[in-house]
Amino acid sequence: MAKPRVVFVLGAPGSGKGTQCEKIVQHFGYTHLSAGDLLRQERNDPASEVGQLIHNYIKEGKIVPVEITCGLIEKAMVKSGKSKFLIDGFPRNHDNLSGWNEQMGEKAEVAFVLFVECPEEVCTERILKRGQSSGRTDDNIESLRKRFNTYTKETVPIVRHYDQLEKVRKINGGTGRTPDEVFEDVKQMFQ
Ligand SMILES: Nc1ncnc2c1ncn2[C@@H]1O[C@H](COP(=O)(O)OP(=O)(O)OP(=O)(O)O)[C@@H](O)[C@H]1O
Ligand SMILES: Nc1ccn([C@@H]2O[C@H](COP(=O)(O)O)[C@@H](O)[C@H]2O)c(=O)n1
Ligand SMILES: [Mg+2]
């Protein structure tokens, strides 16, 4: 049987990864797995042994050890029974990347990385607006600064790594562009 096909979706906090993933699911039949959502789900499980650890990492905008995140991703992939995945917000640092390669390198095919570009000030405005109703513990200015710092120091080098492998497909998700306008560009990447 063919290996599952994976598209990683990366971009700054609030760049619109989740928004575009929803549209890709509707148009192209992918299964959307957000690493952040999987971690929040695990954190909210009272029986979880790593719930408190995840809570602390998320609040500090730090990247949870890959053994936890990749374990949750693989479990969700298997449980879905599907074969085309958008993995949103992963790999976010070198630990994520090497952990994925070790655990999933032989089991899945990474087709490309969809990179959503968006200026920090636009992302900040969006996240603070979302924070009024999201209930996310990290949608506040203090956590957000830490998330951006992590993004710049740890995630941007991962995008560069995939760029060197010519696996990055970049879209402009920024200023004055509606989600539908952004999606018009995203579509080209999937057709
Ligand atoms: N092109 C856009 N124009 C205006 N608002 C947008 C656009 N794309 C997404 N948004 C809004 O910005 C907020 C953040 O979007 P989204 O949740 O998709 O980002 P994300 O990259 O998944 O963020 P995070 O990394 O924090 O999970 C949401 O409230 C969403 O509705
Ligand atoms: N690979 C990942 C992805 C996410 N996290 C943690 O979750 C937070 C929220 O992620 P979103 O993609 O939903 O914004 C993020 O700031 C990290 O704390 C992670 O550790 N590893
Ligand atoms: Mg998201």
Automatic annotation (TrEMBL):
InterPro entries xref list: Adenylat/UMP-CMP_kin, Adenylat_kinase_CS, P-loop_NTPase, UMP_CMP_kinase
Localization per Swiss-Prot or TrEMBL: Cytoplasm; Nucleus
Residue ranges that the Swiss-Prot or TrEMBL entry lists as coiled coil: none
Cofactor: Mg(2+)
Keywords: ATP-binding, Cytoplasm, Kinase, Nucleotide-binding, Nucleus, Pyrimidine biosynthesis, Transferase
Catalysis performed (reactions): CMP + ATP = CDP + ADP; dCMP + ATP = dCDP + ADP; UMP + ATP = UDP + ADP
Domain of life per record: Eukaryota
Residues reported to bind ATP: G14, S15, G16, K17, G18, T19, R130, R177
Region (LID): 129-139
Written domain comment of the UniProt record: Consists of three domains, a large central CORE domain and two small peripheral domains, NMPbind and LID, which undergo movements during catalysis. The LID domain closes over the site of phosphoryl transfer upon ATP binding. Assembling and dissambling the active center during each catalytic cycle provides an effective means to prevent ATP hydrolysis.
Quaternary structure annotation from Swiss-Prot or TrEMBL: Monomer.
Biological function: Catalyzes the phosphorylation of pyrimidine nucleoside monophosphates at the expense of ATP. Plays an important role in de novo pyrimidine nucleotide biosynthesis. Has preference for UMP and CMP as phosphate acceptors.
The protein's name: UMP-CMP kinase
Organism: Clavelina lepadiformis (Light-bulb sea squirt)
